[in-house]
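In this supplementary section we document a worked example of the pipeline. Step one takes a protein sequence of length 212 as its only input; no multiple sequence alignment statistics are reported here. Step two produces a three-dimensional model, which step three serialises into structure tokens for compact storage. The input and output of this example are shown verbatim.
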Amino acid sequence: MKKTKPDTESFLNDLSKGAHPRTQASLRLIFEICNEQHERGSRDFSIAMIGGLSAERGGPSAAAIRNKTGEKYRALIAACADSVGGKKRKSVSVRVTQADEILEGVIDPVLRARLGLLLAELRSTKVQLSAARHLASQNAVVDLPVQPTGQTAAPSHRILTDSERKSLASAISKKTLDHWGWKVDQSGRVLTERDQVVFGIGFVTAIEKLLG
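The serialised model returned by step three reads:
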């Protein structure tokens, strides 16, 4: 029995370029599992099935494949399934989206997977930009009182209220960054996973200085 098509392996290589070594290893594992499914005559390429087999071998679980950071895994599974006529088990009540309409006329499985991944990235970027605007609108305005001549300025932590400090700390917390898939670079910028700038140079360091 033939394995998945060579162009599907080419798609795997494209997904692996520039990815973290652990992500590359996970993609390769998922690709091998999809091949094994086909070789054993199974048409079940559902995320539940592939994720379960992957988790047993130390790879990403079904939950990890379904979350927002699992776009590449889902795209690879879809490409492998389409290349051999496997079933992805879509929900009966799937809502037809604009992306579905765009992909409807695309027959080639690898091209379809690539376009699907691109559309998913565009949706993710749109959500991240929306979140950035929301966070920016929540920035507190700090009113620094003028100190009489000869007196030492009050420490910055006395200027902010507890709720203001909590809001600023939350904006750069690991929980917030992980939720949106953002990261902080050495210059204090907040970036998306694709290195798009959410907040400019010094954003994080400025908040850290204010918080003391």
